[in-house]
């Protein structure tokens, strides 16, 4: 813990402000049970999506309780249950996408005393990729069932042992739970499920933060951009690609026209330009400052361009990662087996990020405004209408962008999945 963070926590413990969108108190630490663990995921998810807390550091302070009779907060310290180590919280945070950044620990207060308090610190500058969505069920009931079935097989078939296990299973199934493709938001001191209107408001704030004062391609010559517009405009929609993937190269050739070598030679020439928006490293091409490039090139897009991109986006986003054909315990070794996706994660993620970008500047696309407006809805609906859990797992990194681009469609599809799909 650095001194600046220590001072912030000392200030909270000294002044004891009321709970709010950036501060929560807990009498005791989250315990090692499914109920408390699911509760922590909700609390963290709520803080990350909070609109009132956007741009501010957030804290969960453990060891403080509210005395109803005295009508004030009381410093109690860590007593009943010691603070879990950092690994406990980091593992639970992995149930949220994008992966949040947090720091946890303990400190003594007042300084020099033996009274300890726990803290969970959620820094503002490292958690700006809203909307944050829960990426897996917790607890995993099916996994619990499988574990208990194994236990039953491995113990003597005694009635008392069987009843003990089934009682434990019932407690697990009745516990607090969070579900994949859902999200929470904190209003004041209360967490509530994230709804369509919340996503819209968050997205509006995000766009104000991204393009509140739009500047067209700082330090880059607009005349140069316009001279390369036919090459650039489709590449800007794609956002980035990895030339070690044949599928990525095929997409570039098909959308931009010509062989990959012919197209890429133009990009290599642009790389030499000072302050070029194009970068290249380790075989990966990226287009920087895309929102401003899209605005400057918007009038050059026509119906055919958007429809071709829509078709390509759906093709890329519905390609299942073949690693999911392997047994669960083998999937982390897919690269060793020589198994990889047709398209790179860079291309998949970049294409998904394009959808909320264009939806925020639809009026700039004067020659294809109707197609731009409908683009996110068609893509999100076509991609998420599947009942294939392998595809949904493949889309993990793209889910936040799909949620931003078409929140109503996303939530409608997500609700159907919750009701019908059992993830393996």
Descriptive account of the structure:
The chain is α+β, with helices and mostly antiparallel strands and 424 residues long. It has 3 domains: 148 residues, Methyltransferase, Cobalt-precorrin-4 Transmethylase, Domain 2 (2-Layer Sandwich); 33 residues; 211 residues. The chain is built from 17 helices and 13 strands. The strands form 5 sheets. A 4-stranded mixed sheet has the order 1-2-7-6. A 3-stranded antiparallel sheet has the order 11-13-12.
Global structural class: alpha+beta
Q: How many individual helices?
A: 17
DSSP strand (E) fraction?
A: 5-15%
Order of helices and strands: HEHEEEHEEEEHHEEHHHEHHEEHHHHHHH
Number of domains: 3
**Average pLDDT number:** 82
Strand order of the largest sheet: 1-2-7-6
Helical content class? 40-55%
Radius of gyration: 25 Å
Q: Summarize the biggest pleated sheet.
A: 4 strands, mixed
Number of DSSP E strands: 13
Judging from the principal axes of the Cα atoms, what is the shape?
A: elongated
In whole angstroms, the N-to-C terminal distance is 40 Å
> Spans of 5+ residues with little confidence (pLDDT < 50)?
155-159, 210-219
Detail the topology: elements first, then pairings.
Layout: H1 3-15, E1 23-26, H2 34-49, E2 58-62, E3 64-67, E4 72-75, H3 86-93, E5 96-97, E6 103-108, E7 116-122, E8 133-134, H4 141-154, H5 159-173, E9 184-187, E10 190-193, H6 196-211, H7 222-227, H8 229-238, E11 240-242, H9 246-256, H10 260-271, E12 278-281, E13 284-287, H11 290-297, H12 303-317, H13 345-359, H14 369-384, H15 389-394, H16 399-405, H17 407-420
Parallel strand pairs: 1-2
Antiparallel strand pairs: 2-7, 3-4, 5-8, 6-7, 9-10, 11-13, 12-13
Helix pairs in contact: 4-5, 8-11, 12-14, 13-14, 13-16, 14-17, 16-17
């Amino acid at each position: 813990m650095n001194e600046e963070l220590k001072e912030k926590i000392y200030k909270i413990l000294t002044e004891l402000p009321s709970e709010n969108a950036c501060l929560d108190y807990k009498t005791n630490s989250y315990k090692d049970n499914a109920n408390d663990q699911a509760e922590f995921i909700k609390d963290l998810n709520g803080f990350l999506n909070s609109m009132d807390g956007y741009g501010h550091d957030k804290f969960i302070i453990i060891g403080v309780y509210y005395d109803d009779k005295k009508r004030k907060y009381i410093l109690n310290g860590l007593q009943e249950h010691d603070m879990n180590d950092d690994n406990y919280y980091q593992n639970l945070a992995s149930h949220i996408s994008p992966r949040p950044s947090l720091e946890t620990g303990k400190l003594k207060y007042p300084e020099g005393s033996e009274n300890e308090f726990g803290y969970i610190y959620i820094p503002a500058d490292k958690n700006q990729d809203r909307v944050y969505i829960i990426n897996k069920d917790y607890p995993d009931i099916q996994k619990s069932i499988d574990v208990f079935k194994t236990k039953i097989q491995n113990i003597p078939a005694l009635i008392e042992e069987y009843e003990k296990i089934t009682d434990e299973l019932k407690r697990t199934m009745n516990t607090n739970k969070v579900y994949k493709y859902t999200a929470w938001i904190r209003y004041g001191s209360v967490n509530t499920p994230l709804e369509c209107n919340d996503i819209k408001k968050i997205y509006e704030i995000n766009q104000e933060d991204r393009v509140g004062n739009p500047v067209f391609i700082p330090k880059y010559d607009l005349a140069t951009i316009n001279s390369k517009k036919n090459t650039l405009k489709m590449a800007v929609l794609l956002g980035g690609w990895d030339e070690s993937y044949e599928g990525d190269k095929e997409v570039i050739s098909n959308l931009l026209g010509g062989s990959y070598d012919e197209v890429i030679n133009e990009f290599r020439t642009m790389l030499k330009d000072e302050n070029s928006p194009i970068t290249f490293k380790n075989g990966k091409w990226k287009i920087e400052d895309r929102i401003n490039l899209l605005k400057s090139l918007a009038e050059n897009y026509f119906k055919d361009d958007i429809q071709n991109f829509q078709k390509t986006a759906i093709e890329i986003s519905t390609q299942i990662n073949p690693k999911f054909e392997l047994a669960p315990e083998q999937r982390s070794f897919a690269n060793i087996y020589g198994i990889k996706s047709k398209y790179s994660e860079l291309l998949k993620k970049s294409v998904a990020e394009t959808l909320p970008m264009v939806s925020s500047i639809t009026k700039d696309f004067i020659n294809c405004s109707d197609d731009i407006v409908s683009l996110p809805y068609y893509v999100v609906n076509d991609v998420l209408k599947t009942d294939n859990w392998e595809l949904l797992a493949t889309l993990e990194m793209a889910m936040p962008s799909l949620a931003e681009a078409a929140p109503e469609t996303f939530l409608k599809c997500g609700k159907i999945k919750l009701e019908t799909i059992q993830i393996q």
